[in-house]
Design a protein that fits this description.
This is Putative membrane protein. By secondary structure, this protein is mainly α. The protein contains 23 helices and 2 strands. A hairpin with a 2-residue loop joins strand 1 and strand 2. The longest helix has 30 residues.
Length: 498
């Protein structure tokens, strides 16, 4: 039986022009009472099934590599755009030999110069669990295929979690999660690496925040940061928004829980003890040392500048850190000075997009970090698809460029100039979506989510909270609102509490 709330759900096929046009492929927009009596087909279940279906299509897209590309030809996996780190690292990081990540040193003969696993602790655990599920026996090729399948099954579960969490974060807009489920870049990059694990934990953390459960938010955010570094950056937007709303306890509760859960996971692996006392384990610190020491790499603005100028940019770390600091200060100022307090998803998207734009490397699967945040920050199909088109073109560009550089004198693939264009498209697509989100913050009336008068439906304890700590235009707007309240009280038309 349908609830009253079902009739209040925002339907993109009614409000979004692109969604309306796209729905013609399946018979047109769904009517308000079209699903009466078919209660099983709730939005969340439909979205989860669509996400699983798209993930399966992404697996099919990897079929040429599964059959031969990962094993018999260095360039085949690039020309078919089906590369994945997963089968290569099964043997390349010693999982086929039963080595324990962070504790056992990887033999140089198989690691390509990597002495320990270069991933955070929870991602290493994810990889180890998949190795346990991988059947033994047979050729190394067969075991690498089975390892990819084991990881794909676990990543499929992560995909379902992401879809459900995004659909439930905003109670009246579950259909916005279709942006995640149908995102082409999501399907293409889902099984390249293990990023979906951290994305799922982050999506669950944002769901908990929308329900006002600050401790659960912090625990999940800390676990996400133990799987990938980027979720820790979301504490910044939470600090700014809680400061503006005068809710410091909410931030301290979430931040304390995040630090606690991160330590619980990391300390057993981080510290080793000998006669000289406790020391930081080399295997645990490998991820952080590698992130700091690695040179500029594929997809980054720094690689584009280096290739165009011939300058190796040895100080790229300094430039990236400086730009990140300045960008975070700018986002904080935006959050405190905007006419209306930004929504959490908006600032979260901006800070992660900033990290991606200034980072020394942009691997194709990093787009997964942004897809759920983009769906919550700017649930508009046109803008989302423009960005996704740029990301798909970059996805193709990097593989064809690697085919070009790996094919010797034949140079079959995309030359450096073409790859540089792909980098520019990725940068411009991300900047375009950032600009739209910033515009929505500066002009709240343009925000799709707030058209019905909502404040921040996924903001948890901050939803509807008054502004306490504000600057600039926000302070003037606050004073204007206060003056309006006083006038209503004076003329008997309202009260300060209304």
């Amino acid at each position: 039986m349908r609830s009253v709330q079902d009739d209040q759900l925002v339907r993109p096929t009614v409000e979004d022009g692109v969604a309306v046009a796209g729905s013609e492929l399946i018979g047109g927009p769904v009517g308000r009472r079209a699903l009466l009596g078919v209660s099983w087909w709730t939005p969340v279940r439909v979205i989860a099934l669509v996400a699983i279906g798209m993930f399966a299509l992404g697996m099919v897209q990897k079929l040429p590599c599964y059959n031969h590309g990962w094993f018999f030809g260095a360039t085949t996996q690039y020309t078919h755009a089906c590369y994945s780190d997963i089968p290569h690292l099964y043997s390349g990081r010693g999982f086929d030999q039963g080595l324990i990540p962070y504790f056992d040193r990887i033999p140089q003969s198989v690691s390509g110069g990597m002495d320990y696993l270069e991933y955070p602790v929870l991602t290493g655990l994810f990889m180890e669990v998949a190795a346990v599920f991988t059947p033994g026996g047979g050729s190394i090729q067969h075991r690498e295929q089975m390892y990819w399948f084991a990881n794909a099954g676990m990543l499929l579960a992560c995909t379902a979690v992401i879809a459900v969490c995004v659909a439930r974060t905003h109670r009246r807009r579950p259909w916005d999660a279709l942006l995640v489920a149908l995102a082409p870049a999501f399907a293409l990059t889902a099984t390249i690496n293990w990023d979906l694990f951290a994305v799922a934990l982050t999506a669950a953390a944002m769901l908990m925040w929308s329900r006002g459960r600050t401790v659960a938010t912090g625990v999940l955010m800390g676990l996400a940061a133990a799987a990938k570094l980027y979720p820790a950056l979301l504490l910044g937007p939470l600090l700014v928004l809680c400061l503006r709303a005068g809710r410091p306890r909410a931030f301290l509760s979430a931040a304390g829980a995040a630090v606690g859960s991160w330590l619980v996971v990391n300390l057993p692996v981080m510290l080793t003890h000998d006669a000289g006392g406790f020391h930081i384990r080399d295997g645990w610190s490998k991820f952080y040392r590698f992130s700091q020491e690695r040179p500029i790499d594929f997809g980054s603005v720094w690689l584009f500048i280096s290739q165009r100028t011939g300058n190796p940019l040895d100080d790229a770390n300094v430039y990236a850190e400086l730009l990140m600091l300045l960008g975070c200060l700018g986002i904080a100022a935006l959050g405190l000075c905007a006419p209306r307090r930004p929504r959490f998803a908006q600032l979260a998207f901006l800070v992660i997009a900033l990290f991606i734009l200034v980072n020394k490397v942009y691997s194709p699967q990093y787009v997964l970090w942004l897809v759920p945040l983009a769906a919550l920050a700017r649930p508009k199909w046109r803008d989302f698809l423009v960005w996704q088109a740029c990301e798909v073109l970059y996805y193709l560009g990097i593989w064809f460029y690697l085919a070009y550089t790996g094919s010797g004198d034949k140079h079959q693939g995309l030359p450096p100039e073409g790859y540089q264009l792909a980098i520019v498209l990725h940068l411009l697509g991300t900047l375009y979506l950032c600009a739209i989100v910033v515009r929505d913050i500066l002009k709240p009336e343009r925000d799709v989510v707030r058209r019905d008068g909502s404040d921040d439906p996924s903001g948890g304890l901050l939803d509807g909270a008054p502004d306490i700590f504000v600057f600039g235009p926000a302070r003037r707007a606050s004073r204007h609102a206060e003056h309006s309240d006083e006038v209503r009280v004076q003329w008997g038309t309202g009260s300060r509490s209304s």
